[in-house]
Write a structure and sequence with these properties.
Structural class: mainly alpha
Number of domains: 1
Mean pLDDT: 77
Radius of gyration: 14 Å
Number of helices: 4
Number of strands: 0
Order of helices and strands: HHHH
Oligomer: single chain
Helix content: over 70%
Distance between the termini: 26 Å
Largest sheet: none
Length: 105
């Protein structure tokens, strides 16, 4: 999935929050939507030359973590950079949990 810009990423996660069945997942998507919306007000698009990953669902969360880390490198605002790195860690944890669940299945 390619968002094109950070506002589109915010809209995507807001939509996912509306359709999520589990409250925990709904809250996570809402946090991501709010976060991307805030970042979009500071950095309206992905960094120049950044190639968004195009992989299967199993690696998307890991890709998002990497994406957040890459954007964090471009941010001058310390609060924004810290929040991006926190979000990257949350994506990584979620991806690790998903991989663990897949292995147990």
């Amino acid at each position: 999935m390619s968002f094109g810009n950070l506002k589109n990423a915010a809209a995507y996660f807001a939509l996912r929050a509306k359709t999520a069945r589990k409250p925990e997942i709904k809250r996570r998507f809402q946090r991501m939507a709010t976060f991307y919306d805030r970042v979009a007000s500071i950095l309206p698009k992905f960094p120049e030359g950044y190639k968004q990953p195009e992989h299967g669902y199993s690696s998307r969360l890991q890709d998002r973590a990497e994406e957040c880390r890459a954007i964090a490198e471009c941010c001058d605002d310390e609060t924004c950079r810290r929040r991006l790195l926190e979000l990257a860690e949350e994506y990584k944890r979620s991806g690790d949990q998903l991989c663990e669940t897949d292995r147990e299945s």
